[in-house]
Amino acid sequence: MSTSARYASLRTFFRRHPSAILLVAQLLGLLIYPAMEGTTGGRAAYEVFGIVVLCLAIVTVRQTRVPVALTIVNGVAAAGFSIAGALTNETWLVVMSSSSHALFYFIAGVALVDYMLRDFEVTRDELIAVAATFTLFAWAFAYLFQLVQALSPGSFTAAVDPEGPRSWIELLFLSFTNLSSTGLSDVVPVRGFARGVTMIEQLAGLVYLAVLTSYLVGLTMRRAAATADRKAKETNE
Predict the structure, then answer these.
(1) Gyration radius of the chain's alpha carbons
(2) pLDDT tens profile 26-70
(3) Angle subtended at Cα 141 by Cα 46 and Cα 162, rounded to the nearest 5 degrees
(4) How many CB atoms lie within 10 A of CB 126?
(5) Are the C-beta atoms of residues 17 and 128 closer than 8 Å to each other?
(6) Which residues contact 120 (CB under 8 A, 6 or more apart)?
(7) Dihedral class, residue 223 (left if φ above 0, else alpha if ψ from -120 to 50, else beta)
(8) Which residues, 6+ apart, have CB-to-CB distance to 26 below 8 Å?
(9) % of the chain at pLDDT higher than 90
(10) Burial letters for 9-26: b for 16+ Cβ neighbours within 10 Å, e otherwise?
(11) CB-based burial of residue 226 (10 Å sphere; 0-12 exposed, 13-18 middle, 19+ buried)?
């Protein structure tokens, strides 16, 4: 296969499976976010990449029944507050940025859940959306943790610099470990409200992994069994 043919095939795949684009961007962010923190240029690049991810999420949500205008308005507000907060470091802007981002990712995550449960046919894009939706909820809770930290400094501690504020990648790490129920994070909520939000995420992760994933896997197995029965009947005839 020529290079142009491979490029066309890859482009067709991502056009048919927008959830895959979002998932790749989210996973890429896990690797490049740590390199972006700590410097002014890195923070600027971080905000630009965040806007790209928001745009990809909006494109993905277009496949669902959630109004696109709602996600666009929320995404623009989140990006605007995020950039302003990065430039000024004002607490109220961090609060607005964190809350608008959390709301955006929660809406996008719920929209993809609705997309996956809309019918009884499991497509390849819906299976990819299982992982993409998980990352959306992980991002949403990470921004929620950032909001809690902005409103109540000292809500989280860690092995490194226990008294200092937790970085974004630390809060995202905490979110992933909670949502996946692995519990491997060294970031610990130490105040009541922070612990309450953490417990809610643990419950959400348990429900998501146990119910939604098993639901889609069950539908996939049922489709495979139905296909096998049909082929068996055709063979007998």
Answers:
(1) 20
(2) 888 888 887 777 665 666 677 777 777 877 777 777 666 677 677
(3) 75
(4) 22
(5) yes
(6) 219
(7) alpha
(8) 53, 132, 135, 136, 139
(9) 24
(10) eeeeeeeebbbbbbbebb
(11) exposed
pTM of the model: 0.82
Cβ atoms of 134 and 179 closer than 8 Å = yes
Residue-wise pLDDT tens digits, 98-145:
999 899 889 888 888 888 777 667 777 777 888 888 999 999 999 999
